[in-house]
Specification:
This protein has nine helices and twelve strands.
């Protein structure tokens, strides 16, 4: 009889604990389902053809790619174009911020949550075609020249790391104007970016020529601020991977004349 009573009490305690665990698990699951995903702020710069304003809307290859991923993930967002230094600071210090198209470097590795690579980076140093005095084939050759760079941009970081003379501006348009005016000797840009800049500020691209590749290349990524929820990062990483596997990423790149290989 005593043994039967002990078994009954033990079984009852087990059932009560089991029921409590189920209720607790159900409560956690319900809370997880009910918890809203915080809206994201996307920050970037004017950087054709990756991100730029057209008819009052931010568009471009990277913008379209992220818009598709966020739509599939059902995450609300807003997107803003700023000078790069401001966008970079926001992504370093504020929660729920995505930044693109950002170059991934060892120095930046621990400052962000890196979501996905969205395009390769291929940039060069350009000079005025009339500047026959400028000749550069190595990093050592570059040490005698003033090189335009955006404040807070990866080019500024790379120039300082290489011990080169960076002449800083807030926008690429200002750097190109300096180059044309002879206030700097060289400017770093991709060929597509330089072409778009020339059109934007009415400069003839024919008066510019490529000197050499920019040392220390890295690819373009989308990254999240450190205080963005890890679940959001994982979801967007999965969605961007699906867009790549489905061919959407390549089709969007083709639309903007970009090569992803």
């Amino acid at each position: 009889m005593w043994q039967q009573k002990w078994y009954f009490l033990t079984s009852r305690n087990f059932l009560l604990r089991w029921a409590g665990c189920i209720a607790l698990a159900g409560g956690v699951h319900a809370a997880a389902v009910a918890a809203p995903v915080p809206p994201l702020t996307l920050v970037t710069e004017t950087f054709m053809p990756y991100s730029y304003v057209e008819r009052g809307q931010v568009t471009g290859y990277a913008t379209e790619l992220l818009a598709a991923a966020l739509a599939h993930a059902r995450i609300d967002y807003s997107v803003q174009i700023y000078p790069w230094a401001r966008a970079f600071q926001m992504a370093r210090t504020q929660p729920n911020v995505l930044i693109y198209s950002i170059v991934r470097t060892p120095e930046r590795e621990d400052q962000f949550q890196w979501i996905a690579q969205i395009a390769p980076r291929s940039v060069y140093l350009f000079k005025l075609r009339s500047r026959h005095d400028i000749k550069a084939h190595t990093v050592d050759d570059l040490r005698r020249y003033r090189i335009a760079a955006n404040r807070g941009d990866v080019v500024e970081e790379q120039l300082h790391q290489l011990g080169l003379n960076a002449d800083l501006a807030a926008l690429d348009e200002a750097s190109l104007r300096k180059l044309v005016a002879g206030r700097v000797d060289l400017m770093v840009a991709s060929e597509r970016m330089l072409k778009d800049l020339c059109l934007r500020i009415a400069v003839r691209c024919e008066q510019l020529e490529r000197v050499m590749p920019m040392p220390g290349l890295g690819d373009y990524y989308v990254a999240a601020s450190l205080e963005t929820p890890a679940a959001t990062v994982h979801t967007l990483r999965a969605e961007l991977d699906k867009l790549k596997s489905s061919g959407f990423m390549q089709r969007t790149a083709d639309k903007y004349g970009l090569t992803l290989k």
